[in-house]
Amino acid sequence: MFEQINQKKALLDANRPLPKYTVKSLREKLLLEWTYNTNAIEGNTLTINETKVVLEGITVGGKTLREHLEVLNHRDAITYVEEIVHKGEALSEWQIKNIHRLVLKGIDDGYAGVYRDQQVFISGAKHIPPAPFLIKEEMEQLMAWYEQLETKKLHPIARGAMLHAIFVGIHPFIDGNGRTSRLLLNLELMKDGFPPIVIKVENRLAYYEALDRAHTQKEYDDFIKLVTIEVEDSLNLYLSTINKNT
């Protein structure tokens, strides 16, 4: 499944470092598209152009404070994820809570970075997240799975996709689980030198269905395939700049 991806990644690595301003413009493009799509999946009504101006510090009339905060918070969470990658820090529950704290900052400070104390349900899904008293244990099991040698041997795409799927199945927070899970997925990819990916809002139905299969049947292949397509899209974007710079 990953042979073509590996070849493209090797080609990208062979042409690194990319020119400084190329990297800057790629980051800005992906940060915008990642922020717009991840928030749109969760119901944020800002368009991609409105998201762009909010990122530039401009308020959009007729939109809620929450929608503005979701954009700015996500930008800050991406910056934090980039810092983790740059420092080479190992993933921990503390980091996951910090990512979530940034996602929910100013939106629901009482639950930002705090595991939920209430039962929740995922709209449209067959899977029911675990009861609140089980969350701590399930998150510890997730971290134990992540630390296993067998998990470390997985391809970064499979490992990142499964981390995302298992985490969002636990649904450890009252709100912001989807955004946090996609940040964790990209954190895992970026640690291995892959560009961040964008789960596109137009693919939301396939995304939700693949996740529900992962949760109810422990069948991760469809979700891994969906993530693989997005990884190839991001690699193709980066590789297109190499052709223009040579």
Automatic annotation (TrEMBL):
Stored InterPro entries: Fido, Fido-like_dom_sf, Fido_containing
Keywords for the protein's UniProt record, in alphabetical order: ATP-binding, Nucleotide-binding
Signal peptide extent: none
Residues involved in ATP binding: D175, G176, N177, G178, R179, T180, S181, R182, Y207, Y208
GO function term, MF aspect, one: ATP binding
Active site, per annotation: H171
Organism superkingdom: Bacteria
Positions bearing the site annotation: Important for autoinhibition of adenylyltransferase activity: E42
Record protein name field: Cell filamentation protein Fic
Lineage: Bacteria, Bacillati, Bacillota, Bacilli, Bacillales
